[in-house]
Structures are given as C-alpha cells and as structure tokens.
C-alpha cells in the first residue's frame, strides 16, 4: 500500500488550482467539502504519482461536464414500471450500515440478468446510485457519526451464478471502468458470499493476478458469510441473502423491508423520490422526458475490467474443461436457493 506524502497532496492541490471554473464546479460534487480526501483517493488509485493522479481527476471532471453527471440525479427513469423492471434485473441495494457507520451495498451478482432495458438505462441507474451515495448517503452518515465517512462496503452474492452470465461481460466491464476511473477508492472492502464451487476454483487463479491494493480488499467468505459479517455489522444490517444459511438471494424473498433489491425497500424509495424531487426543482414547468441518459463509455482497460475479464475467462476455461453447459448452481456444494 503506497503512502501518500503531504508534499504530494500539496502538489496535487496546486495543479488543481489551475483548472478552469467548469471543472472546479463539478469537482465540488466529488469532494463534498473535503478536497483532501478526494486528492488522497485519486493519488492512491495512481500509486502516489501526482501527474498521473492529476490527469485521472481532470479526465474524470471532463467526463462529468461532457455527460452532465452533476444533473443525473434530476433525471428519473420513467415510467415507474420500467424502473421496477431495472431493479428486478440489476440487483443492487443498501441494507444498512457497519458498526463504524459505513454504508453497506449489496449486489446480486449471480441473479442479475440485465435483460429488461438497454445498456444505457443500467449504466444510468448505476451512476445515479453512485452519485446518491456520494452526495446524500455519505454526508448524512458523516453527520450522524460525527466523523468524515467517504467510503462504503460491498457484499456480493454469487447465488445462482450461471455460465450465461458471461453474456453480460460487456456491461459489467463498462460499469467497472466507470467506477475505476471516476469513483476510485470509494469501497473499503468487498465480501463475496454464497460462492459456488466454480467461483472458488477460478478465484484461486485470478487472485494472484490482482494488484495488492485490490487483492487485500476482496474476501471470499464461507457460505452466506453471516458469522464473519456480524463482526462488522449488526444483524439488522445484514443483506437478506446473509440472514440464514440456504436463504439464497431471491429477488422476491421476504418483505420489501428485508429484500434490499426491491424498489419497495426504503433505500430505493428514498432514492427514487429524491430523483423525482430534483427533477421537479430543475424543471418546474416542462414535463420530464422519457428515455435513458446516454453516457460516454470509457474504452480504457482498468484494473476493474481486467478483473472481470480475467474471471470470465477462467469461468469459460473451467466450463470447457468440465463440459459444463448447465447452471453453476448445479456445482454449488451449498445449495442457496430461495
């Protein structure tokens, strides 16, 4: 792990004083009043190299301006039925907070199908959750806990993982690239749960290929991970798929308050209401347009895309070697079905 010096931070700050006003304005939505934290995140992402970190941040700010990211929280996905379909096929939620006050985000990596809308809608939804996290959730968590909180924790559920998931590799690499290039070092740890045998086997190959900084963040937990996760969060904040062994991560399991993926869950209700309110504030007269927001997709190969692509490649190799065409669930020694 590289150590960022005060001199590097000062140099970075001096360089940022020279950027134009449009970039400085959008930078405010990144740092949320804490520029030092933003400098540290971008410097860490570029191993302490000031010039590279400065280029990365300027490129990110330019991307934000060109794609109107500052206004994306005023662009609801409508009608509601379409947004509900996206929530049912892009399984993301926020079940609670860690004992230290960090927001917990859950991802249904195995059961997400991404087949109910265009790529642009899924990218728009992902960026909106990122922006809501950074502009609303994290500042509120900081205020509540009386300390600066700028990172979150992610729990990835591999229940239902299939070889057909490789068909979504393009979308997953787009999302990974957007996060790597524009939201670096926003996650303190990734916990993988309900991992089928094939994932565990491929992980052993992929893990040594990752940068040390990323490798240390990723932990593959046993079963649903409940015992390990309860060391850092209360039971009430556990994602529903970690509540008991064999619970799985069904899109419809339990009540709406328990299923953090559901549009009816408080987090998604608050997020969707916030976006609709912002739309009314920005456009009090004109009706909100239907249609997705088209964001420029990065074409750079990032650490995240290398991880996704390498893991997918290992899945394919493993599948061919074992003549697999069926669901990876069939290989899961822990059958986590709903």
Automatic annotation (TrEMBL):
Listed name of the protein: CRAL-TRIO domain-containing protein
Domain named CRAL-TRIO: which ranges?
A: 79-239
The organism sits in which domain of life?
Eukaryota
**Species, as recorded:** Solanum tuberosum (Potato)
Question: What SMART domains is this protein classified in?
Answer: SEC14
Q: Which PANTHER family match?
A: CRAL-TRIO DOMAIN-CONTAINING PROTEIN (PTHR46226), SEC14P-LIKE PHOSPHATIDYLINOSITOL TRANSFER FAMILY PROTEIN (PTHR46226:SF6)
Alphabetized InterPro entries for the sequence: CRAL-TRIO_dom, CRAL-TRIO_dom_sf, CRAL/TRIO_N_dom, CRAL/TRIO_N_dom_sf
């Amino acid at each position: 792990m590289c150590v960022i010096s005060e001199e590097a931070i000062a140099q970075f700050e001096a360089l940022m004083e020279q950027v134009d006003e449009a970039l400085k304005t959008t930078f405010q939505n990144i740092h949320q009043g804490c520029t030092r934290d933003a400098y540290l995140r971008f410097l860490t992402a570029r191993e302490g190299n000031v010039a590279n970190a400065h280029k990365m941040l300027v490129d990110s700010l330019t991307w934000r301006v060109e794609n109107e990211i500052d206004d994306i929280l005023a662009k609801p996905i409508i009608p509601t039925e379409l947004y509900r379909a996206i929530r049912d096929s892009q399984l993301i939620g926020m079940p609670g907070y860690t004992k230290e006050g960090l927001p917990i985000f859950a991802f249904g990596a195995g059961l997400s199908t991404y087949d109910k809308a265009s790529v642009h809608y899924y990218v728009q939804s992902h960026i909106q959750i990122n922006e809501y996290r950074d502009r609303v959730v994290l500042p509120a968590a900081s205020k509540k806990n009386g300390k600066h909180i700028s990172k979150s924790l992610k729990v990835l559920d591999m229940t239902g993982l299939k070889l057909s998931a490789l068909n979504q590799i393009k979308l997953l690499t787009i999302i990974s690239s957007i996060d790597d290039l524009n939201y670096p070092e926003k996650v303190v740890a990734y916990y993988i749960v309900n991992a089928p045998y094939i994932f565990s086997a491929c992980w052993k190959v992929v893990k040594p290929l990752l940068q040390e900084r990323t490798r240390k963040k990723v932990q593959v937990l046993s079963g649903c991970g409940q015992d390990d996760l309860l060391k850092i969060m209360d039971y009430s904040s556990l994602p529903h798929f970690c509540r008991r062994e064999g619970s799985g991560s069904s899109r419809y399991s339990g009540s709406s308050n328990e299923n953090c993926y559901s549009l009816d869950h408080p987090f998604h209700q608050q997020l969707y209401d916030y976006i609709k309110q912002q739309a009314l504030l920005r456009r009090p007269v004109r009706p909100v347009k239907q249609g997705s927001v088209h964001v420029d997709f990065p074409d750079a190969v990032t650490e995240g895309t290398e991880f996704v692509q390498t893991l997918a490649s290992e899945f394919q190799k493993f599948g061919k070697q074992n003549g697999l065409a069926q669901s990876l669930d069939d290989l899961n020694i822990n059958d986590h079905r709903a």
